[in-house]
Amino acid sequence: MNKVLVVGDANVDIVVHFPQYLNNDRTKVKYSEPRFCLGGTAANTASGLQRLGVSTSFAGTIGQDSYGKFVQESLHNQGIDITNLNVDAGVETVGVFAFVDEYGERYLWAWPRKNQAFKELTWNASLQQSVRKSRWVHASGMCMSFPGSAQQTMLTIFKEASANNIPISFDLNCRCDDRQIDSDFMTYLHEALALSTFILGSGPEELEHIGPGDWRENAQSFANQGHTVIARDGANGAYIYSPSTIETKTNCVHIPAFNVEVIDTIGAGDAFDAGFISGMLQGKDLYDAVVYANGVSGYTVSHIGAYSTPTKQQLTNFLTNTIQRSQYETVS
């Protein structure tokens, strides 16, 4: 049995770091070697889970092209079940150019702009069986952000998981033009949120746009409806809004980040998701699972390479030797 089914986008990342200037006149420059690696918000989480020792399967669509072949081989070589990775000659696998500045922040640009494979996903008997055999279903909102068959299929997956009492975690991964969410996407999004057990996402960048209030008010609103919301906030760590925090009359619980030198933030949120799911499947309580997730994210942003997410042993060493910025605290 696969413990976790991850559904969503898979692509390749072409990562290019900004030049490093070695003098004030900028006449001496050091260039880093670009790297070519597996990418996509959902594929990153699947990879992170597998590296943490969690049996994982992946459902999504790639093109019958060189990028798609790379994605397929990368997932397979990690031991991820790709039974439901659909290869479609009629679409193209996306390549994402990720430019990383001197602070580790990334700027993304995807190609091709049309006929993108990740927007498509077909519901079938094989996928239905994979959902039913899973202990957990995780999905990325990236595939729901754009018109395509993946929008409806993801809702069908959520409904199937919910009907079988399988926990669902949903990372918003919204892509907003002019800081507005498309109205059609919002319809699919709110139906997905209603079915989700755990809602994850960046507070300022994503939760800000899924309701009428600011991101904290929106997170609280979904907690009031019975969902657990994990709001990431970069170097500030993460905030938990859940029915249990309501019962204890606290608005939320703040889990601080770990104190690390940030080298590369690509995939930090995806790594966080992998850590959170892994922690919950280990039987950790909600707070310890978010600490664990912060650890995975902290390790990831402080390392560079094709697979910068930690193995379970690497994470254990990191958690032992790295301090949090402060202890977790309730926020009223």
TrEMBL record:
Residues 1-309 form the Carbohydrate kinase PfkB domain. Keywords: Kinase, Transferase. The keyword Kinase applies. One of its GO terms (molecular function) is kinase activity. It comes from the Bacteria. InterPro entries: Carboh/pur_kinase_PfkB_CS, PfkB_dom, Ribokinase-like. SUPFAM superfamilies: Ribokinase-like. It holds the Pfam family PfkB. The keyword Glycoprotein does not apply. This is Carbohydrate kinase family protein. It comes from Actinotignum urinale.
